[in-house]
Amino acid sequence: MLIVLTGIDGSGKSTAARVLVSAVLADGGTATLLNNHAGRRSMSVLGARLGFRLPRRVADALETTFRVWNVLLNHLRASRTEGLVVMDRHLYCQLALRATKGLPRGRLLPWLLGKLPAPDAVVHLEVDPGVAHERIAARGSDTETLEDLAAFAHAYRQLPEYGSFKKMDASVPVPELARRLARVVHELGRAPTEGRPPVAI
Question: Global pTM?
Answer without folding.
Answer: 0.87
